[in-house]
Amino acid sequence: MARLLGARPLPPLLRVLVAVMVVGAGVAGVRGLYEDQVGTYDWYQQRIGRARFASFLTSSQRKRVLVGTDRNVVAALNLRTGDIAWRRVLGDADTLHALDMGGRYLITVSGTKMAAVRAWAVPDGALAWETALLLPSAAASTGGAVTASFITISAPDAPSTDRVVVLLGAASAAAAAAGSNPAAAASAVHCLSAATGEVLWSAALPTPAHSISLLPHGSILLTALSPDLSFSLTTLDAASGKVTASASSPPSSSSSVSSSSSSSSSAPIPGPAAAYVTATGTAVAVDSVSGNVLTAVLVTSATADATVGATVGATTDATVHVRSTPLASLLPKEHYQSGSSATVVPEKAPGSFVWLSVPGAVFLLSAGGAGQAESAGQMSLVDSFPGVSAVSASVVGGAAGAGGGGEGREGGEYHSGLVGSQGGGDSLKFNIKVHQLLPSSSSSSASLLSDSVTVPSHRGPPAQVFLNAYARAAGAGGRDGARVRGQEGRVRGRRVRLGSGCWWSGRMTHCLCCSSLFVSNGTKGEVVWEREEALASVVAVSVAELPEEEEELSVAAVEHDLYEWAHTHLLRAKASLNLASADEQALVHRLRTASPEKVRPFRDRNGFRRILLLLTAPGGGNRASGGNSRGSGGKLFALHSGDGRVLWAAALPSGGSAGGWGASVFSPEAMVLWRDPHRMSPDQTPEALVLQIRQQAQKQQEGGDTEIAHVALMNIVNGHTGDVLETKGLPFIPRLVVPLPLVGKDERRLVMLVEKGEKEAEDRKERGWYQPVLHVHVFPGTEEARGLFEGHKKEVFFYLVDAVTGAVEGYSIGERVEEEGSSGSGGSGGGRDDGGRLGRGVVYGAVLVWRVVLPADSEVISAVAAPKREESQNTQVRVLGDRSVQFKLLSKNLLFLATTTPAAAPASAAGGTGTGGAGEGGEEGGAVVVYLIDTVGGAVVERVVHKGMQGPVLAVMAENWVVYHYFNPAASRHEVSTIELLDSSLKDVPVIEYLKYGLSIPGASNLTAPLSAEEIPWERVKRLRQSYYFPYALKCISVTSTLAGITNKHVLFGTALDQVLALDRRFLDPRRVPEPSQQDKEAGIMPYSDSLPAPGQAYLTHRYRVEGLKHIISVPTRLESTTLVLSYGMDVFFVRTAPSRVFDSLGEDFSFALLLGTIAVLSIAILVTFGLSRKQELKQRWK
Description:
It is a single chain. Strands 54, 55, 59, 60, 61, 62 and 63 form a seven-stranded antiparallel beta sheet that branches. This protein has a six-stranded antiparallel beta sheet with strand order 46-47-48-52-50-49. The chain contains 13 helices and 69 strands. α6 packs across α7. β23 and β24 form a beta hairpin. The chain is mainly β.
C-alpha cells in the first residue's frame, strides 16, 4: 500500500494549481515600474524661489500672477490656488534684472555679461521673441556685471506700437569685488518694439544712469546719484532717443546716501547711492550722514514756469536745483529721533508723493506741486502711519499711460496697502489697511479698508506687499478679478509679495509676504493658499526619527482598522484578478499613492517614516525697513518622508535687539544631528545643532572692529517640535564642524569646532612657510563629555584643505589650552556658565602632523571627497570565482583630492565646486591629477595623471573604491574612472579557512581604526583602475547606503539634466575584461564595454526634473534591502528604493487577501482531490 501511494502521480487538478503558483511566483519576481506606481514610494515638490518682481493678470479668465524670483525663474501662478501654471528657469549665469508686462507679453531683462530682453506668452510661457543687447564699449571694458531696468510705453489705440525702453549699464568690477554696488561705468538706452523685439533706436548716454522713468508729458528721465551726492538728470525724446536736456548738481558736503534704487514704473538699477523718482520727475534721496532728505529737480530754459522736464526738440540749457530738508524738522518727534536711519521706499505713488520709512513707522511725503517752480522739490509731511513695515500700491481704472502692468494710468485711482505686524510667541498679527491717494490733494483720503490676519510666528514680519486693487460696485456680482470703473465701492485686491519665501493668493483683498507668502481674505481674515518658497534655498539636510506612537487604542478604533484592512486588501485582490471596476481601480491607485500608513506622524518598525530636517538660507528684508527683518536668519523645516508635508518650521535667530546678538544678520552655515536617540529610547527626542555666521563678520574682524562680541551662533533645536532650546554665541568663526563618533549617556554626540587662532611666532614664519595656530573647541562642556574626549583624544585626527594655496594639512589634538567662557542666551540653560545643553566649551590646541603642498602655479584643487564615517561595511573580503577570498583595503582615513592644471581648470575650481558642462576648462594639453592621501600620516597612497582631460571633477568614495567624473575634450565626451584598493599580501585564502579563522589569519587586518602611516601596509596595496565613457555631464554624485552594507551599492549620478541616475556598482568594477572567464562570471564580473549604460528604468526621478540639482543624500532604513534617497536643489525629490530588490520583506501592496484566498482554495482542493483519489483507489481495488 505504501509503495503504491508513494508512486502515485499528483491528481490533474492539483498539478494545475501547483503550476499556477509556480508561474505566479515567477511573475512576482519581475522587476519593473508601471505608470500608476509612480508616486507610491516617492514625492516631488516644485519651487520657484523668493520673488523679486510681480505683475498681475486679472482681466482674462485665467487669473494669474507673473513673478520673477531670486533663483532667476520666471513663472506664472494660478491666483486662485497658488499652483504653478508654467515655469521657465533662466540659469545661474542669467541674472534676472527686471520683469513687467509690455503689451500682451511678459517682458524680462536678464544677463551677466550681456543683456537678453525676452518676451513670454502669458498663457503658456512660450518664448515670443528674444533680443540680445551688448554693453557700451566703455562699460564692457570694466569687466563688471550687467545692470538693467526698463519701462514700457503703451498706446491705448494701437497696441502693436507698444515699446520697451531698456536702460543698460555695467558696474565696475573692482568696486563689485569690494562688496559695493557702484554707479554704472557707462550706460545706454535701447528702445524695442514690444510686439517683435526689433530695436527701434539706441542712445549712448553722456553720463552713467541708475534709474529710468517716464514723465507725464512723455519724455524719458534718466537719473543718477553719485556717492558724493551729485545728482545727474537727463531727459530723452521717447520717439527718437535724442537727449533734450542734461545737467548735474555739484557734490554735497556729505558722502553717504540711504535710498532704495527705484523708478516710478519698474525695477531700477541697483546702486550704493540711487535716487527715487516721483511721478512728476523729482529725484529724492536721504543723506544718512547729515540726516537730511535731498530733492533734485531738472529746470530747463525752454519751460517758462520752470517745471520738471524739457520740451521735445533740440537740446536746451538745463540746471539741477537741489533742496535739503532736515528730517528732524519734517517728521514727528514721537516716531523719529535724530540720528535714526531713514529710507525712501521704492513704491510708486501719484503726483509728487513719496514714501519714507523709519524703524517702526512709514510716512507719506510730498515733494512739491507739479508745475510750480517755487514749490518743486520742497518736502512736506502728508500723513504718518506708525507700526507699518511694508507698503504697496495699485492703480484702479484710468486710461492706460506709461508703465507696465497697469502702472502710471492717467485718471486712475491710486490705492496703497500698508501692512504692519504685532504680537509674539507662537503667532503674529498682520494689520492691513488700504488708503486712496489723491494726486491733486495735499493729504491722503480716509482708510478704505482695514483687515488683520494671524499667522505663525516663524513666518516673521512682512518683507514686502504687492496690492492689485480694483473697484467693485456696491451689490455687483460676477467673478473675482472683474473691474468696475467709475463707481466707488469696496476695494478688493490681489497682490503677492515674494520676498522671503512663501506665497498665498486667491479671492482675497490683499496678498503679502513674510518668510512665507500668503493672502488674506478681506472680510474674514483667512489664509487661502500658501507656498513655502524658502525651501528653494536649502543649505543643509539631516534625517531624524519620528516620535513613538502612544499605544492607546480603543475597541472601536481596532474594529475600524480591521475593517479598513479587509476592505483594502479585498479591493487589491479584485484589481489583481482584473475584477475591479474603473472606480475601484481608481480607489486602489489612490490608496497606493496616499496610503494612511505611510503618512502617519509616528515612526514605523521598518524605518520608512522619518523627519527630514532642511536648513534654508535667509531671505531678504523688506524694502521699507531697509532689509532688517525678524526671521531673516534662515529657517529650519521638518518634512515628513511619507508625503513631503511640513510638520513644523522654526525661524532661527536673525540678530536685532530682540535677539540680543546685535543688529547684524546671522546666516545658516551648517547643521549636524547632535542627538540621535536609539530606537529603544522612545522618551528622548532628537536634537539638531545649527551653526550661524554673522554676515560680514570676517571683514569686520579683519578691520579691527572690537565691538563684535559674537560672530557666530550655535542653536539647539528640538527635532520633534522645532523649539529652539538653547542659543550660544561664539566669539570666533569655525572653519570646520566635526561631529565625533563619541556619545554620552544622554545620547548627545560630541561636536568639535576648529577655530583659526592667532598667527604663530615670528621665528616659525622665518622657516619659509606660514602656519596659523588652530584651536579646537569641544561641546558639550559637561564633565562626562570632557572625560570621554580625553580618553579618545589620541584617536582624533582632522585635516584642512586650502584650495587657494593648494595646501593640505593634517592635525591631531594637543594639550588643553583653556576653558571657554559662556555666553548663552535664550531657551533653557541660556545665559548659564555651567549649565545648559552646550555648557562651557573646552579648548584644545591642534598639532600639525603632516603637510602636503601642491604646486599652485600648475595645479588647482577641483574636488575633494572622503568616505562617510557612519557608513556600514559588511565584510572586508570579496569571494572570487575560484572559491578564494580577496581582502579589501578598508580605511575611512583616506582623502580623495583631484586637481586640474590652470589651463584646464574651470572658473569655479578655486572654490572646490563646479557644475558639470562640456568643455568647461581651458586648452588642450591640460590634465586632471588624482591623489589618494592618508589623513593620519599624510602618505600619498596613489597618484594618477589623466593627460589631456578637463574639469570640473566630481567624486564619491565608499568602502575601498572611489569613482570620479571629468571631461575628455579629445573625444568630446565625459568619462568616469574608478580606483579600487586591495590587500595583495594575502593570496589564495580559501573561503573555508577565512570563515574558520577570520581575522586571526596572519597579516589580515581591517583598516577601519585610525592608524599611522607606518602601520598601514601601503607597500602591499594593489591598485585596480578602469575608465569608461559616460553619456552625461554631472552636477553631483553620491552612493546608496544601507543598514549593514550587504546590499549591492548603486552610484547616484545627478546629471546636468537635473535627473538622478542610479547605476549598479558592478558596471564600474575595474576587474571587467572583454572576455571574462567562467570564474569571473561566477564572481559576477560583467564583460567590459567602453561606455556605461543609462537605461531608462535606472532613473530614480522618473519623468521629473529636480531644477537646480546640487546634492543627493542616501539614508539607510531598518531593512537592509531598502534605502531612502533625497535629491534637492530648487526642487525637492524623495524616493524609497531597493538597489538589490526587496528581499527581506513583503511589499506594501502585497495582497494578503489574495494569499489567504489562494491558501483556502488550495486547502479545499487538496481535501477534495484527496477524497476523490481515495474513492478512485477503492474502486480499482474492488475490481
